């Protein structure tokens, strides 16, 4: 067919006879058998010793094709070994000259399946494949596919669109993987989104593939960073910031200095990576990080855009926020004010820089966001006062009670706290982490006291997936409280259900939580929740799927009709009275 003809067309360029020549010879000759014999002699393997060996093989019924094929395979292996050897020996210019000559000779046969591996091998070892050959490869889907990544890199670096097509599905896959973890049906306070170490995360498929695609090519690395910045701007999705840091650290693991030394964030990211591993910013590393931030020189402010993206990675924010809560507790013990703690101020500075990443990259105004004094002089002392309230309450419980009876837990929230959570992004982030902290301590009183402040928060942060993922995990520690009407009403009616109808993700998180804890919830409450959480026409597949799983579990819990019949009712039938709606 046409494909065959195209495949062998290259032979004529090299002065080697092909099927077409044989056809022509046979068409124009008087003695076909003699002509075939002559064609075999002219185009066979030119080894004198073979003259006698071949008839011997014929006697054994071994087809000539099989013989030629095995000779050919043997030669190809030798050639491939030789090409790899040439690529390493002699002076640089000489070895590449040899390979370029070989490429010139072999390229016409690139379509022949048997020769293709040799051509590909030669190109793979050439640091600069001639432009014309790259264009031919690019224009042919099959050739492009068969190319080694070393050759593809040379094609990609001048074809951003083509490279984008290759990278795009990987980035989609990465975001999906992150979301699957956040919505996973396994809920636990021991294992959560932030559990895997940075090293483990970098072994992920997408990071590994991207690392492989980039190799040592700074231009491709820059392109990937550009894609990540653009996508982060377009979607505000912070997982792109995680990938930015993971990619750099993956190249760091492989000691690819060609890239690491030119990325101005390298040392900062490396130091922060160590903090993320420990889930804490210690004093020594805090100094180091501060040194990097203070060292940003005039005229180089653009690096702040990159640093802010590194700090906007949820794993970085998680580490900074956890460290902030720990510092606040220490300050309570030391009777020190937040403004007197340089370490705490540095954590806040990095949190602001991270939280300001989107605005900075969007506006292209590269300067550190100003820290609001109120955050330090009013909000953090407020959080410290909550810590003090807990200490006081605990001590009061232990004192012998006088006539006046036990001291109740403070139930009101200072209005300033609620206002800060609504209006100040950093305050909101720290406030949410404080609530995660008290939940993890199984401090039900403090949790119920602060929960109402979460209904309205800065850009709905309390309904973000990362917070809800962590909250649902920590709530499993309070699982026994779910039997209590008051607790459930505060948590579900007072918080979750306020957003379920307008936020699909909240709907999903509540269903995840109930799938895990339904057996702890009082039956009457469970029934009303099942009604309230029924999917609507607008609900997505994930919500419907979770709701069905929950309904199946609840079906299995119901007693069978036989069991119900066996328990005689002790009460007299009462006339039915319409119940007030408030119940």
Automatic annotation (TrEMBL):
Region (Disordered) residue spans: 557-583
Cellular component terms per the entry's GO annotation: NELF complex
Coiled coil: none
Classification via Pfam families: COBRA1
Any GO BP annotation: negative regulation of transcription elongation by RNA polymerase II
Highest taxon of source: Eukaryota
Protein name (Swiss-Prot/TrEMBL): NELFB factor
Gene: Nelfb
């Amino acid at each position: 067919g046409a494909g065959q003809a195209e495949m062998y067309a290259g032979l004529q360029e090299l002065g080697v006879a092909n099927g077409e020549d044989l056809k022509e010879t046979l068409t124009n000759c008087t003695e076909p058998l003699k002509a075939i014999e002559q064609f075999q002699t002219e185009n066979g393997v030119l080894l004198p010793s073979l003259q006698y060996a071949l008839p011997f093989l014929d006697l054994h019924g071994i087809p000539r094709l099989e013989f030629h094929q095995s000779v050919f395979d043997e030669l190809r292996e030798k050639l491939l070994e030789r090409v790899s050897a040439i690529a390493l020996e002699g002076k640089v210019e000489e070895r590449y000259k040899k390979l370029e000559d070989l490429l010139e000779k072999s390229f016409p046969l690139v379509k022949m399946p048997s020769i293709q591996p040799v051509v590909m091998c030669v190109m793979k070892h050439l640091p600069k494949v001639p432009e014309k050959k790259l264009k031919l490869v690019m224009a042919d889907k099959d050739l492009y596919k068969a190319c080694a990544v070393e050759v593809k890199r040379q094609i990609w670096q001048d074809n951003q669109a083509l490279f984008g097509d290759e990278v795009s599905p990987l980035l989609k896959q990465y975001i999906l993987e992150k979301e699957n973890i956040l919505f996973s049906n396994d809920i636990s306070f021991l294992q959560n989104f932030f559990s895997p170490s940075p090293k483990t995360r970098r072994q992920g498929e997408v990071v590994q593939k991207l690392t492989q695609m980039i190799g040592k090519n700074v231009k491709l690395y820059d392109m990937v960073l550009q894609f990540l910045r653009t996508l982060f701007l377009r979607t505000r999705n912070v997982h792109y910031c995680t990938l930015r840091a993971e990619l750099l650290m993956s190249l760091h693991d492989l000691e690819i200095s060609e890239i690491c030394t030119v990325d101005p964030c390298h040392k900062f990211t490396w130091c922060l990576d160590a903090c993320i591993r420990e889930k804490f910013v210690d004093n020594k590393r805090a100094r180091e990080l501060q040194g990097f931030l203070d060292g940003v020189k005039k005229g180089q402010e653009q690096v702040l855009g990159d640093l802010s993206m590194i700090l906007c990675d949820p794993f970085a924010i998680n580490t900074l926020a956890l460290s902030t809560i720990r510092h606040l507790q220490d300050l309570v013990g030391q009777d020190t004010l937040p403004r007197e703690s340089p370490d705490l101020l540095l954590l806040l500075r990095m949190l602001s820089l991270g939280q300001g990443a989107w605005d900075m990259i969007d506006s292209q105004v590269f300067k550190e966001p100003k820290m609001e004094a109120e955050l330090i002089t009013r909000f953090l002392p407020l959080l410290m006062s909550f810590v003090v309230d807990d200490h006081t309450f605990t001590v009061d419980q232990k004192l012998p009670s006088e006539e006046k009876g036990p001291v109740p837990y403070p139930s009101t929230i200072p209005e300033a706290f609620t206002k800060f959570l609504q209006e100040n992004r950093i305050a909101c982030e720290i406030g949410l982490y404080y609530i995660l902290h008290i939940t993890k301590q199984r401090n039900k009183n403090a949790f119920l006291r602060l929960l109402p402040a979460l209904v309205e928060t800065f850009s709905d942060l309390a309904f973000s997936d990362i917070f809800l993922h962590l909250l649902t995990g920590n709530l499993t520690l309070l699982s026994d409280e779910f039997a209590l009407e008051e607790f459930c009403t505060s948590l579900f009616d007072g918080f979750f259900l306020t957003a379920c109808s307008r936020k699909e993700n909240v709907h999903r998180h509540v269903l995840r939580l109930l799938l895990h804890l339904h057996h702890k919830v009082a039956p009457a409450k469970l029934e009303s929740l099942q009604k309230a959480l029924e999917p609507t026409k607008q609900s997505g597949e994930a919500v419907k799927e979770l709701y069905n799983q929950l309904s199946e579990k609840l079906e299995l819990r119901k007693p069978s009709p036989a069991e119900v019949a066996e328990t005689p009712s002790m009460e007299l039938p009462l006339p039915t009275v319409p119940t007030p709606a408030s119940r």
